[in-house]
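ok so i was messing around last nite and threw this chain in just to see what happens. nothing serious, just curious
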Amino acid sequence: MAIQIIPIATCSYTEWLTLWQAYLSFYQTALSEQQSLLNWQRLTSQEYPEMSGYMIRQDNQMVGFVHLISHASTWTTRPYCYLQDLFIDEKYRNQGLARKLIEHSYAVCSEHFDRVYWLTHESNLTAQLLYDRIADKTGFIQYKKILPP
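result:
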């Protein structure tokens, strides 16, 4: 069972898109083709150095991804890295692959960032079992307000 974690920019749009669409389905949502293409361009372009990502391959099959967004903070001298999206194809779950992607994120961020942080839905109890072992809960609750264009 050969596992590789590779920069998303070295993968094909089709490989990523298949997993991206499955991720959106998992969260019972949809985005336009234009938004998906824009996301891909941002994740793979040097014009958006604050956005990056990695894909995980098992036995020559792309099975998951992580998307990272860096930003400055008013609380620390070093920036934060927001782990915005994490997904493993359901056929490959419970094999430690999500943990490998998170730990890879820790490794690539450790020299440049103060922290890696993320959100998960309160109903995603399976993921929380992992997160509780590898990170600290902050106790914060997210609020949001969608703004008109």
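not much to say yet. The mean pLDDT is 96.
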